[in-house]
Amino acid sequence: MKAQGNPTRGGETNLFVRARHCLELADPVAKLAATAAVAAAFAAGDLFSANDDGGPQSIGIPGRPPRPRLVPPRDLPQRGLGTPDGRAALIHAVAHIEFNAINLAWDAVYRFRGMPADYYRDWIGVAADEARHFALLQTRLIGLGHAYGDFDAHDGLWKMAVKTSDSCLARMALVPRVLEARGLDVTPGMIERLRSASDTETVAILETILREEVAHVAAGSRWFAWCCACEDCDPEATFADLIARFAPGAVKPPFNMPARLAAGFSRDELARFGAAA
After folding, report:
1. CA quadruple 147, 142, 2, 51: dihedral positive or negative?
2. Which residues contact 248 (CB under 8 A, 6 or more apart)?
3. Which of 153, 169, 178, 269 has the CA that lies 20 to 30 A from 88?
4. 169: burial class by Cβ within 10 Å (0-12, 13-18, 19+)?
């Protein structure tokens, strides 16, 4: 995607124009500022989901800085947490996820038209949360002598956005309920490792992110169920079918059962993927 100019000329009240502008911004500082501004404007009732911008474009590369360099996941080195650089690499990996999550949230707003107002409210709120998470992690990186872009990263999250660009049902299933839900399972382990390394500052940030990501995955569960109701299909069977088709093996135990249940998964649903009863 090529960034457009300032949307305040002609599109200042069009939610989709503003969402696309946030999505296209490459500079993290500008993206965070625009995200906060659009979230505030929507909360004040100043934005409307009017379809007067020609509809969503074919999905492409979202706005992101030239660094980090994107490499296959297998090419990312494994680093221990016993050194500041090792902890910085882990924090950078989470920051990269959060930066991508800002783009994913804005694309969910921009791409899927004709949804209830609560849908847009949910995903604008998610974008604002993810921006705040990224800012916290970036500040922590700076404290460790690094910045976003200093380490290589991968592009798995956005690849799934491309695969689900033509279906809100598939997007809600495969991004929040698969990729983001995985964070609910792995973050407690990261927190314990960082606590063992006496990195209490990063622990506090990850605890905040974990708590708030439950609500983000729950939004995905809620709108996935809404889409299934619209298409008259069973959510649990449909979810299992989508996993088999698009992400085999991506949902696997051990699960953070309290977090996943709070995020809209059922025990029967998780048992289908190997969770203990």
Report:
1. positive
2. none
3. 178
4. buried
Name the CATH superfamily, with its identifier, for domain 81-272.
Ferritin, core subunit, four-helix bundle (1.20.1260.10)
Q: Are 177 and 220 in contact (CB under 8 A)?
A: yes
- Overall pTM > 0.85: yes
User: What are the residue boundaries of the structural domains of the chain, listed by start?
Assistant: 81-272
CA dist., res. 69 & res. 49, Å (int):
35
Cis peptide before 68 (omega within 30 of 0): yes
Instruction: Give per-residue pLDDT as tens, 147-188.
Output: 999 999 988 888 899 999 999 999 999 999 999 999 999 999
| Location of structure tokens 């709108």 | 223
What distance in Å separates the CA atoms of residue 104 and residue 149, rounded to the nearest whole number? 19
CA distance 227 to 221: 10
* Residue 237 tokens, joined: 């069977």
Query: In the chain, which ranges are continuous DSSP H helix?
Result: 15-24, 28-43, 84-111, 117-143, 156-163, 168-174, 181-196, 200-231, 235-246, 257-262, 267-272
Beta-bridge partner residues of 70: 153
